[in-house]
Amino acid sequence: MRAILIDDEELALKALERQLHALGCFEIIGKYTDPLQGQQKVEETETDIVFLDIHLPELSGIELAERLLERRPDLQVVFVTAYDKYAIKAFELNALDYLLKPIHTDRLKLTVRRLNAQQKPGLAGRAASAQTSWRMLMLDAFRIYEGSQELPSLQWRTAKAQEIFFYLLHHRGKVVSKATLIELLWADFDPNRAYPQLYTAVYHIRKMLEPFSRERILLQNTADGYLLKLNGICLDVDEFDRFIQAGLELSNDTLPEYERILKLFKSEYLEGYDYVWAELERQRFQLQWIRLKLNLVRWYMGNAEYEQAFKHIEQVCTRYPLEEQAQLLYMQISDRMGFHFLVQRQYVLLETVMEAEVAEKPSREIVKWYRDWDNKRQKG
Q: Model confidence over 180-206: pLDDT tens digits?
């Protein structure tokens, strides 16, 4: 990968260059303390990735990244800085990563793994650029993007054709037998009628996918079924799963990555499509998201960053009001921030919701905590 380094500190440039050389997967084609010279080099060369300090003379690294990405949307940008308050803005620019100084080698290896996972244009050669700039959202209302542009939504002729497509997408890369699809959608039909219905639905799917090149979304026939292949399309669900599988420990270094991954979960898996077969996957992503959110909340609490903890726990409680551990954390954080009225309001709200939804009372742990808190408050 061809890399350019931009930092106003010469020593920082040399240290980063040594670390990247040691990893053996970067070709450093330029390093600059002058951001304008670095910008010119990026625009004149086939650069794959820029390691960019945020605090630069004349213009900030954020501003320089905006200029570069406007001209080169395929460029990968990794921000390097001694401050973490710019992380959110960095990822709003679709930066690949955000490194805090001093940079540790293990953290840099994580950046390399993310590079390999992203498979964006430039990293596998410019000839592959058309294969790697698409994204598909499944942790939300279903959408497809080419670069930053949202493509027109798919207009289905029939509800069954739509469900077959999403079922094949759900099982992407795997053969789904015709018998399985018949059982799913035409179980009550005579086989002589069911199979023509299936073939007609598949025909409509193929017609719907015609605007997408065969290299992007390919629906293949097999001996007894169908296989949906995606090529050069980054799925948010796959990115979320890769993060879970990596098992990264939450720390100052990995915090921006945690924040970025959690933002992928904009809504439920295949939001708006109430397919029974998708429910287990929907629940799996819900549980993973809640677990990551609660880990993040507890980490912020442990570092006395209560405003950040409150922001995240409020999101969990709003989305899943029956999640009792989240409700307890909400009340504990509100108490530490001195928002006693929020503690009282949330407890009453939890009692009301649980009675209405599941005809139960809050857990003993929550009831005990609230009573102890209320007694202490009244005595104080």
A: 999 999 999 998 899 999 999 999 998
